[in-house]
Amino acid sequence: MSAAPNTPADACAYASSANSDRVKLKLVYSYDGSKFSGSQSQPHGRGVEDVLRAALGRVGIFAPLISSSRTDKGVHALRQVSCVECTVHWELPRLKELINRHCAPYIFVQHISPVPRDFHPRYDAVARCYRYVLNHGRPSPFLSDFCVFYPRVDLAALNAALTNFVGEHDFSEFMKSGSDIKSPVRELYVARAYSFRNLTLINFKANGFLRAQVRLMVANALKSVQSGRKISFSRALSRIPFPPNGLYLSGVSY
What we know:
- The chain has helices at residues 11-17, 48-58, 92-103, 155-163, 213-227, and strands spanning 22-31, 66-67, 76-87, 107-115, 127-135, 148-149, 167-170, 185-196, 199-206, 247-253.
- By secondary structure, the protein is an alpha+beta fold.
- The protein has 2 domains: 8-115, Pseudouridine synthase I, catalytic domain, N-terminal subdomain (Alpha-Beta Plaits, 2-Layer Sandwich); 127-253, Alpha-Beta Plaits (2-Layer Sandwich).
- Strands 1, 2, 3, 4, 5, 6, 7, 8, 9 and 10 form a 10-stranded mixed beta sheet that branches.
- Strand 8 and strand 9 form a beta hairpin.
- Helix 2 crosses helix 3 and helix 4 (155-163) packs across helix 5.
- The longest helix has 15 residues, at 213-227.
């Protein structure tokens, strides 16, 4: 696969070199998941993709939108990635400005750049990162959509529990039932918690994640700390995912 252009503003030159009057664009954006019924398009039109597609339609872009990852209702994104094709006449800073105008206030496009025509935001991804936010401060209704209020936890014990997830494992016990997948095996590169003031931030990085896997890993790690029992891949300590509002898709690597 050929490398993408170094300058995002050079979409027209890139498209010309590909002998095409169309260009594939990569959109990197964030969203407040509490305002949507998940990232995927929904019958009632309240998915993140529904709003983003509508914004693209307002500027005359109607091609299919393909995203790197799916997030559940209430889950946020710091750096989601999607791709769409359009004609080459757009100046990318102006396009970004117009899309953000129509997506406001709950979706914000941070960056738009041209990519090769064979780039796929999902299948070309080599890793995905998620972050879970626990708040040990006084509960606030103004923050409750963006973190989970939880008593302060022993950080060393939490990290000892999280270490069990690192490596290649069958995560069948850590996904929602009814998931349609080819294999439950995933390789986790990072599972680590950090303290920052009144927050505990739990970071995960893997080659892929199953549905609700991160929320179930957080639930099991905290259950392990509370009970002193070890994480088990044959029988989960908890089958109830932790709430979605503390979870963020923090990045996708290519």
